[in-house]
Amino acid sequence: MKSGIHPETYRTVVFKDMSNGDTFFTRSTVNSKENIEIDGVSYPLVKLEISSSSHPFYTGKSNLVDTAGRVDKFMNRYAKRMEKK
Questions:
Q1: Which of 49, 43, 57 is nearest to 12 (CA)?
Q2: Cα–Cα distance between 49 and 31 in angstroms, integer?
Q3: φ, ψ at 56 (rounded to 5°)
Q4: What is the three-class DSSP state of 45?
Q5: pLDDT score at 28
Q6: Are 53 and 18 in contact (CB under 8 A)?
Q7: 45, 42, 19, 22: which is closest to 32 by C-alpha?
Q8: CA 21 to mean position of chain CA atoms
Q9: Averaged over 48-73, what is the pLDDT?
Q10: 6-43 burial, b if ≥16 CB within 10 A, otherwise e?
Q11: Domain boundaries, the chain
Q12: DSSP state letter for 19
């Protein structure tokens, strides 16, 4: 790594998913006005609307919604090529 281009203020920060209450620790330079105390230690707190623990794609709770009929359009467009085989 090049010296002098990376921030020097890395510290442990708590990110909290507000939709399900999950928290996780990581090192970050993000600024935070709030703190949270965990196990007697105070950490800066960053609130998130969604994280991988609540995102429908990563939790497997998402449904594939084909609102524009893209699958049907694809099948109609390439139906002739599929018949040749």
A1: 43
A2: 17
A3: -60, -35
A4: strand
A5: 93
A6: no
A7: 45
A8: 15
A9: 70
A10: eeeeeeebbbbbeeeeeeeeeebeeebeeebeeeeeeb
A11: 11-84
A12: T
List pLDDT tens digits, range 21-44: 889 999 999 999 999 999 999 999
Structure tokens given for 21: 């209450």
Find where tokens 């993000």 sit: 30
Q: What is the pTM of this model?
A: 0.61
pLDDT higher for 61 or 34? Answer: 34
Cα–Cα distance, 14 to 24 (Å, whole number) = 6
* CB-CB contact of 10 with 29 (8 Å): yes
Q: Do residues 20 and 53 make contact, with C-beta atoms less than 8 angstroms apart?
A: yes
Length of the chain: 85
